[in-house]
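User: Assemble these into one structure.

Assistant: Restating your components, then the assembled model:
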Amino acid sequence: MKGKTWLFWGGLIAAAGGVLFQTSYDVQDLEEKLAGLNRKIILEQESIQVLKAEWSYLNDPSKLEALAHAYLPLQPTEARQFLALEMIPMRPADAPPPAATTPGLAPLPPMVRAPGAAVPQVAARMPVPAASTGIVPVSATLPAGAAIPKTVPMAKALERAPVVVPAALPAPADPSAARPARIKPAALVPGAARAPSEPAPAAGRMAPNVPTALNRPTELASRPMPVAAPTPAPKAAAAQPSYQPKPTDSLGLLVARLGANR
Amino acid sequence: MTIPPHDQGGPAGYGQPGASTGSSYVPPPAHKPRTSLTVALEQSRYRLMVTAAVVTAVFGAIGVKLSLATLFAGGGEPRQHVALELDNTTSNRADIIDRNGNLLATSLVTQSLYADPKLVSRPEEAAQKLVSALPELDYKEVLGKLSGDRRFVWLKRNLTPKQQAAVHRLGIPGVSFEREERRFYPAGPLTSHIVGFTGIDNNGLAGMEQGFNKRLTAEPGTPLQLSVDLRLQHVLKKELAATVQEFSAIGAAGIIFDVRNGEVMAMVSLPDFDPQDPTGLDPDTLFNRATLGVYEMGSTFKIFNSALAFDSGKIRVSDAFDAAHPIKIGRFTINDYHNLHRALTVAEVFQHSSNLGSVRMVQQIGIAAQKSFMTKMGFTKPTGLELPENGWPLVPNPWREVNSYTISFGHGISVSPMHTVAAAASVINGGQFHTPTLLRRQPGAEIPTEQVVSRQTSDMMRRMFRFVVADGTGKSADVKGYVVGGKTGTADKQKGRHYQKNSRMSSFLGAFPMQDPRYIVYVLVDEPKATAKTYGYATGGWVAAPAVGRIIKQVGPLLNVPTVDENAPEILNSTYLNAAGSTNWQQSLPPVTAPTPPKGSTVASFPTQTKPR
């Protein structure tokens, strides 16, 4: 009887000791992982800082003006080009609704956004082949009968901004860079210039940083994209390979980008 | 305890119970004789008890501590690694951003190379290798550093990653890297005089970097937001540079100012410098003409002279003053640039920028009133702008009659352009003086204001401003749609004790839209030379006014200022003034162009929407 009691307690102590040691090693492992993650976060933050600085550097108004002079037929706006809102008559009630809303036309000027805001563009654009340089109408990209998650229009809007590199930049492996010098305003997003050349895991790694202010859960940032995007994009690219935005579009985009209408 | 004298003491007494009944000594009970064994037993019991007590106390303390440490301390030692806060920044100095969030200054992590000469075994070889990897280093200097006695020498600060890799590959013992931060200015020279720069150890040496050094290092996580707008800054600098080039000037200064809250939207001083590398340059480039330089402003000061005249209540806009006869005071003779040889109304004095008329006005008002008014306008102390480069005005002391005469047309008192702009803003914005600021005012925060002139004075000054641009010396500043008003200024520069005829400061203080002023655009050009295109003139109206016009044309849309028709009745109602000093625009118009029904009436049935701001 006494021996059994000893055995029981001894076994209990041994088990507890074993569990304790196991836990302790687990904790050590986790601590090491945490330290590694912290180092990575710091590294990421430092590179974000560098990218922000580069972004601001490339967005220097003097540079933009020189580029606009070289590639765009735009002049500074004059007073006669503005019209008071009350001068525009209201639309008659029986008029047809507008054909298609264009969610991608007036994004917030990225330079005004929070630092993390450039990341979803990278993440969203990753799966898209570099060939899809044209602006893709939303309707064309939807596979028939496909269940569209709510997040798609936003993602499409981001997709619509084609990955084109200004000629002044070193050209990555992007066929659109070989196009003639005319640059679509949407392409003046320098954050996009680097996107194609980055390794694919970058999207997954950076996805948790996506700000929740974009009306979608963080986990969805990278997930639905590979399902929806890769199939329609080549189709659309084949359908409209040589779409050039109208001058009116580019003006609107430029104004939106400069934040002048806000 | 008292021992009786007959008691001999000792154990012998135990054998005689009751022998000493008179004593207070009580013998132990007879049946338990105190043998040496009993004593020893008792002693050891006490000792045991003491030992047990000590052991219990110690173990009790250990037990308490153990339970505290295990049960109540949240499970063991403090964590070695704590998850980082995601918003936290890695740098030690806060960013500086403009009002739209564009970076103006940021800190980037770099590696710096240092050596511990004690650990360098062969300095010659190490120096040879280092110079081969970093060709910009000098071999002799490196060798001297490496063979010295100190334990720490910097070899090169802020290496690029490529250079770092090259040095790393050499594998020289005793040479290692230190993580450092370097200030980087993405906007470059564009905001150099506002943002300033830092030294190699990242302490601010000029501009906001110096003025807010403590704040930038104390809260590295929150960026410092300035009131400047990078786009406006660019437009202003571009036009100033064009003007400087066109008129071969030696410098220029420009300010765009929000008259409603005192925010400086843009401020440029030319020539400027590259904040990345401010050392070893011409010190003139570091000089901030817009805030540190104090100049005699010339005719721009007639703004304040007229405001003083209206505010005193003694002079009305239609009053006429003699402007034909030069004024002699002491050894000075005051005359006009273009003498019109007749009496002028106050409006005409302002329109033609007449010195004589201004002097006659101040003669009527008095010296004391002028002095107190100029003090109220902030011309006797620095502006209170956050920059460390803040000039003290040069004010005459004592303030004599001759000083009051010259001050009426802007000579004899030297203030910085920022003084002029802040004071002019208070004259046209309804009379509220705001201390100029370079920090963005938080929406909803209270703006410190001081009422310096009356609302009526301010209203009349707006008309005077508009009159100068509509039909005066500042016509070339006019921009269709933006109802520009302003005042030209030309001052001869003083060299030594004399004024020079051909070196002058030409300036223009423009404001728009005059029916409800929102922004002041100020341009000052230092020593412009006349060109053939300006018919030999280099005055404010020929040099600075066109620049202001071009600036307003470009910044108006950026600032979201609605365009209006200058000749619309509601605009004329609040901006019209004629040479006779009448504000009634309907009388002055010929009957044919008498007010037509407003264009908007044809769509009056639609609900009017206000333009969003």
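The CA atoms of residues 291 and 418 of chain B lie 6 Å apart.
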